[in-house]
Design goal:
disordered N terminus; 631 residues; six-stranded antiparallel sheet; 23 strands; eight-stranded antiparallel sheet; alpha+beta
Length: 631
């Protein structure tokens, strides 16, 4: 990352000199800039002018009906926009956001709380320091000198809070820990920003120490950053608590910026290696497959909730890894598809399902786009775009450190996961050899697993489910007894293997806490075989059981897409093709609204649950294929 490192250091040292002339823009820059200004226009329209100090200057969220505590992260993109356009409305909005933050979330110990009167969590102080610190480094001369000095002094107090709270920001990556690794991964950059401005060598030394500790937080086989769970790992099956969304949209970008600014080449090399490994999970349409991640309760198809996006971090390594340029462009295109009326919706079907957009997505990712535009270098005229790893993939790749397999055959992509690392509470992601993703080159996502049971693990950072009928988007086997749901995807003890072209799982139906039904274990076996024609599933109930056991397949189907049952099975029409699901047992649609749909907040799709009965001792075969015959 030598050229990127030089660029960042130059930018940091000269930012207050009025700013360089804007380079000629390429297509990626134009897309990022246009999207950013769409988002900023919507956010400014939401900025409150009110006699109520709890509202005045904040962005009112149409989904959550309040002002989010971290909305001042938008100070960075607003000041970027002021520098680029010369329009003071952006600077005025940024100053008002700062004043709102200081009135409402500032604490006596120098921290800022995550949300006003709802959350007392102060760890997000690191992200506020980074957002405001980058704004001051690059565009601080836009402010009156006394205002800029006051902001820097306030950031120094915030850095003192980070410095003095090792339990939150710099615990070594071993054993149990109080907080997730994203705070440790972001603390070095926050401390460096303030330390280099104020001359505080204690901040700079602490940043270096935390960064050194983080070398132990990259998994041994797959170079994945781990630590997104209270217990570090390894798990009983040898897995590690990894969350793709937080890593690619927050932790790794912040580590990359720190490594470049501090000249830490060893850390830069490690982060680049990890970014490449994480990129194996990007789908050809620019989506991130976090169907297996420990914090998948914040997974959206395009990334993650309350984080900044992958673009700026990956942009730093485009010289070394040209496929990163493809990744940034594809993800930008997906973000554009999820944006309506200037608001980034929390998933691809939020709008079609009638769900309002939470503005946290918009202001967080606006901050990320501003960082991208500040450091991006256009491709040379003779540069050849490289495909994404999963775009060109064939066969099966195992990721041992997360007990997850990626399979590819023709137009199909599949993810199978057995990661036994629940996050704080159980049921946050599928386990037990679950089919967590099925994707097709033309159809796009067919299945995309989310939480086994939707719950507000982080109430201030997730949207309330007010539907009368809910479901998990995860394909599964389930059994209900006395109101308690038992599934195969809650089983952390299942035995999973890939043999002779087939994924095999032998497990049990258990409740969300891993307990068997009162009458004893209910054993099940599943097989998945992927070919260029499609997916064949075989499911067998190995135990006699009183009551109905069924397979549930939540097919992704937007409300305006034609789908339904016919004499042979389930049909779904999309992209000029027809998906067909057939079985050697009767299939039926298993509930939902009048169109059969149920909206799943993670990762943000409407689904039609298709169910098939299971009979003890009898194998059930299910076939999912595609034809060009329309409904």
């Amino acid at each position: 990352m030598k050229r990127g490192c030089i660029l960042i250091l130059s930018m940091l040292l000269t930012a207050c000199g009025g700013g360089p002339e804007l380079p000629q823009r390429d297509g990626l820059q134009r897309e990022a800039s246009e999207l950013l200004y769409d988002w900023l226009g919507a956010l400014i329209a939401q900025q409150q002018s009110s006699p109520d100090p709890a509202m005045d200057g904040g962005f009112f969220c149409p989904a959550c009906q309040r002002v989010h505590g971290r909305c001042a992260d938008a100070i960075l993109p607003l000041m970027y926009a002021c520098r680029e356009t010369g329009d003071r409305k952006y600077l005025d909005a940024a100053v008002r956001l700062w004043e709102w933050m200081e009135r409402n979330t500032s604490m006596p110990d120098g921290s800022w709380v995550n949300d006003v009167q709802i959350s007392d969590w102060k760890g997000t102080t690191v992200f506020s320091v980074i957002a405001v610190g980058e704004a001051l480094m690059r565009y601080g001369d836009l402010l009156p000198p006394e205002t800029a000095a006051a902001w820097w002094a306030r950031l120094e107090r915030a850095a003192e809070y980070i410095y003095g709270n090792d339990a939150d920001f710099s615990r070594r990556c071993q054993g149990d820990r109080n907080q997730n690794v994203n705070y440790s991964a972001s603390a070095p950059y926050a401390l460096w920003i303030v330390g280099q401005k104020t001359g505080r060598t204690d901040f700079l030394n602490k940043a270096a120490q935390i960064a050194a500790d983080l070398f132990a937080c990259f998994s041994p086989n797959d170079c994945l950053l781990y630590g997104e769970a209270p217990k570090m790992g390894p798990t009983p099956k040898g897995g590690y608590p990894v969350d793709l969304g937080y890593n690619v949209e927050e932790s790794l970008p912040n580590l990359a910026f720190y490594a470049a600014a501090a000249g830490n080449d060893a850390l830069s090399e490690l982060v680049g290696c990890s970014m490449r490994s994480h990129l194996e999970f990007m789908l050809p349409d620019g989506a991130w497959d976090n169907s297996w991640g420990t914090r998948s309760f914040k997974w959206t198809y395009w990334g993650s909730r309350t984080s900044d996006g992958m673009a700026a971090g990956y942009a730093l390594f485009m010289d070394e890894y040209p496929e990163f340029r493809t990744a940034v462009r594809r993800n930008l295109e997906l973000l554009r598809r999820a944006t309506y009326g200037g608001m980034l919706y929390g998933g691809m079907h939020y709008r079609s399902a009638g769900q309002p957009p939470c503005n946290h997505h918009t202001f967080s990712h606006a901050r990320g786009l501003a960082s991208l535009l500040a450091v991006y270098e256009p491709a040379s005229a003779d540069a050849v775009p490289l495909p994404l790893p999963r775009e060109a993939a064939e066969g099966v790749r195992e990721f041992r450190d997360i007990r997850t397999w990626l399979a590819a055959a023709g137009a199909w992509r599949v993810t199978i996961t057995d990661l036994d690392a629940p996050y704080r509470v159980t049921g946050t992601h599928p386990m037990g050899g679950a089919l967590s993703l099925l994707w097709h080159r033309t159809l796009g996502p067919v299945f995309a697993a989310g939480m086994n049971r939707y719950a507000l693990i982080e109430p201030t950072n997730m949207q309330m489910d007010r539907q009368t009928v809910t479901t998990s988007p995860s394909p599964r086997i389930e059994y209900t007894l006395d109101g308690i749901l038992y599934t195969n995807i809650d089983d952390p003890f299942a035995k999973v293997a890939f043999r002779e072209g087939c994924f095999e799982s032998l497990g049990a139906l258990v409740d969300v806490d891993g307990n068997a039904p009162p009458q004893g274990p209910v054993r099940v076996a599943t097989e998945y075989r992927l070919t260029e024609e499609g997916l064949v599933m075989r499911v067998e109930l190995l135990s006699s059981v009183a009551g109905a056991v069924r397979v549930v397949l939540p097919f992704i189907a937007r409300s305006d897409e034609a789908c339904g049952m016919d004499g042979a099975g389930f049909r779904l029409q999309r992209g000029g093709l027809t998906l067909r699901c057939e079985a050697d047992a009767p299939l039926r649609v298993g509930g939902g609204n009048t169109s059969g749909r149920i909206f799943c907040f993670t990762p943000g799709f409407e689904v039609v649950p298709v169910v098939a009965p299971l009979t003890a001792g009898k194998s059930l075969e299910i076939r999912i294929i595609v034809s060009d015959k329309m409904l």
